[in-house]
Amino acid sequence: MTRTADYRKEKGNSFTSRLFYRKYPKFASALSNRYLMYNQEKDFIANLESKGEVFCIQPKFTPEIGRLEADPEKIQRVYDMGRSDATEAMESLVKWLAEQRVKS
User: What's the pTM value of the predicted model, to 2 decimals?
Assistant: First the structure.
């Protein structure tokens, strides 16, 4: 994942999407409600993780980077943070994978 476990999206300004995509009302509606879908998916994944059905790696801190970031140093810093989080989770992941193998 790219966000912390406790991150939840909040409702955005649906007026803009409804105005800009007025010829595509279903698309505008989907954009307006994407925060709900995102939060439901986060809850679904958290539920699967608590049951031991999936192994999830997510950052400890929210990365300070924009969606369209062009600064190579910022991109490298976030990449390094993700790599560090994955390395720290590696031992737990190996144990989890071994448990999955025994179950099947």
Answer: 0.80
The interaxial angle of helices 34-50 and 25-32, nearest 10 deg, is 50
Structure-block tokens of residue 31:
């954009």
Query: Which one, of 12, 68, 60, lies nearest residue 39 by Cα?
Result: 12
pLDDT one-digit tens code per residue, 40-67: 999 999 999 999 999 999 998 888 898 8
DSSP state letter for 33: T
Task: State the residue for tokens 């800009």.
Answer: 20
State how far the Cα of 25 lies from the Cα of 21, in Å rounded to an integer.
7
Q: Distance between CA 11 and CA 34 in Å, rounded?
A: 8
Q: For residue 52, is it left (φ>0), alpha (ψ between -120 and 50) or beta?
A: left
